[in-house]
Amino acid sequence: MNDQQSGSGPSASSGVIVLVLACAGIVAALMQTLVVPLVGELPRILDTSPSNASWAVIATLLAGAICTPVVGRLGDMFGKRRMLLICVVPLVAGSVACALADSLVPMVIGRALQGMGMGIVPLGISAVRDVVPTERVGSSIALISASLGIGGALGLPIAAAVAENASWRILFWGAAGLSALVGVLIWRVVPHTETTGRGGFDYVGAVGLGAGLLSLLLVVSKGADWGWGSGTTLGLSAVAVVLLLLWGRWELRVKDPLVDLRVTVKRQVLLTNLASVVVGFSMYAQSLIVPQLLQMPEATGYGLGQSMLAAGLWMVPGGLFMMALSPVGAKLSAARGPKVTLFVGSLVIAAGYASSLFLMGSAWGLMIVVCIGSTGVALAYGAMPALIMSVVPQSETAAANGFNALMRSVGTSVSAAVVGVVLAQMTVRMGGFEIPSENGFRTGMIIGGVVALVAAAITLAIPGRKAPSVDQAAPVSSGPQEVSGLARS
After folding, report:
1. pTM (2 d.p.)
2. Which residues contact 106 (CB under 8 A, 6 or more apart)?
3. CB within 8 A of 388, min separation 6: which ones?
4. Which of 315, 444, 425 is nearest to 377 (CA)?
5. Are 422 and 447 in contact, with CB atoms under 8 Å apart?
6. Least packed by Cβ within 10 Å: which of 64, 182, 185, 261?
7. Closest Cα partner for 81 from 192, 215, 235, 168?
8. CA dist 294 to 173, 255, 300, 307, 366, Å?
9. Confidence class of residue 97 from pLDDT cuts 50, 70 and 90?
């Protein structure tokens, strides 16, 4: 069914379209940080245990990871605008469910619905290619994707301020209102795009991928709580491996696959997706460690004693750096090719981690670390869409972006698990409680830096190509994964 058949709002300039899609990205990112200030209060609010309350965070991660590649394929088949509007529905419904929740189950359902709306991210990137003049595609995608970094950076202090001064339910009512507003703006401003996908929808592939990812991400998210050697963890790990292998076999044999694995195994696509996993890991380690250091009591000798609100405000400049420098990455990709941009970005991330070893003693120092790391993320994540879309058929643009977003999600999830284990094992005792030690934080930073260097090494193996016509680089935030790890910390 062609997306042009269902009618449209009045035409709008490309600048207004980009602004609306950027706002949609900001709202999607805000959704993922709303719950962070409530993490400590969720057991009391929902009358449940801390372990059970963590599902209110993990549900968003799981739903987003599972639904993003599916939504991408549907966007290619039925039109990006239509799927953008559909993604708004669970954002609104999930926010309302959370606002009305008085127990664990409705809260988890609401948070899962909010995660389903994260398909807005790859859909927005893909839609820009269809509705913006060629000469503005690169800068437009950069702006839309960088807005996710801004949303994530702004979401924490905003949510903390509301949570400290008003009812927690206001956070979700506000989210519902913002989501509804974004839906109206998309309906009125974003034009229809011609469908490019052909064939039917792979329902078996969607279920298989969802089940495999669910098993895998449950192991990553809850393995530390269950015990890495427990029967549950090992059993789910085996299930994940079997399901994903069977899914891969199915995708190679079905006529219209959910993900065309023959395209994903092309050297450029395969290595870019692998780099996405590794860069996602490296990027997230910083997002997990820095807020904890900022909020650690000063009595530890290395903590900075900042409130949740203050810690969030110290992180804001990092999002602003992503916004400011994303056009630089786009220009570098146009001039030298996105491979160079990804390589430079990985090295900058590593430099940020290296600087942390000397700047961890003050809030100003950590802000500088965050800004350096965010600069690298802006460059590295910015190059990935260009590398992917330069070799993927136009009919699979949204699906390919969705799968690449999934790879970043896997990287951030694994990062949360690894860094969580490091901080849980390297502790000191204070006030009767075990807390992460200074050496634990430094080790986490070193791991993040080493992994960033691994990403740079992987990038060197990617065939050197420029973007097809313009730089299409754009940084894309991990959103829910960041919140999940912060909550588990």
Report:
1. 0.81
2. 97, 98, 100
3. 269, 272, 273, 400, 401, 404
4. 315
5. yes
6. 261
7. 192
8. 29, 52, 12, 8, 8
9. very high
Confidence class for position 78, pLDDT limits 50, 70, 90: confident
d(CA 395, CA 196): 4
Q: Mean pLDDT over residues 345-351, rounded?
A: 95
Lowest mean pLDDT among 87-91, 320-324, 455-459: 320-324
Q: Which residue in the block uniquely carries the two structure tokens 């860069």?
A: 279
Q: Are 227 and 171 in contact (CB under 8 A)?
A: no
Q: How many residues does the chain have?
A: 489
Res. 300: pLDDT tops 60: yes
Model confidence at 469, pLDDT cuts 50, 70, 90, reads very low
* pLDDT at site 476: 40
Query: What is the SS3 string spanning the chain?
Result: CCHHHHCCCCCCCHHHHHHHHHHHHHHHHHHHHCCHHHCCCHHHHHCCCHHHHCHHHHHHHHHHHHHHHHHHHHHHHHCHHHHHHHHHHHHHHHHHHHHHCCCHHHHHHHHHHHHHHHHHHHHHHHHHHHHCCHHHHHHHHHHHHHHHHHHHHHHHHHHHHHHHHCCCHHHHHHHHHHHHHHHHHHHHHCCCCCCCCCCCCCHHHHHHHHHHHHHHHHHHHHHHHHCCCCHHHHHHHHHHHHHHHHHHHHHHHCCCCCCCHHHHCCHHHHHHHHHHHHHHHHHHHHHHHHHHHHHCCHHHCCCCCCCHHHHHHHHHHHHHHHHHHHHHHHHHHHHHCHHHHHHHHHHHHHHHHHHHHHHCCCHHHHHHHHHHHHHHHHHHHHHHHHHHHCCCCHHHHHHHHHHHHHHHHHHHHHHHHHHHHHHHHCEEEECCEEEECHHHHHHHHHHHHHHHHHHHHHHHCCCCCCCCCCCCCCCCCCCHHHHHHHHHC
Share of the chain above pLDDT 90, in %: 29
CA distance 74 to 357: 45
Cα–Cα distances (Å) from 35 to 32, 60, 163, 317, in that order, read 7, 10, 9, 21
User: Given a cut of 50, is residue 278 above it in pLDDT?
Assistant: yes
Which amino acid makes up residue 350? Answer: A
CB distance 247 to 212 below 8 Å: yes
Backbone angles phi, psi at 360, to 5 degrees: -75, -5
Q: Each residue of 233-254: pLDDT tens digit?
A: 999 999 999 999 999 999 888 8
Cα three-residue angle 128-132-133, rounded to 5 degrees: 140
Of 5-14, 54-63, 126-135, 340-349, the poorest mean pLDDT is in 5-14
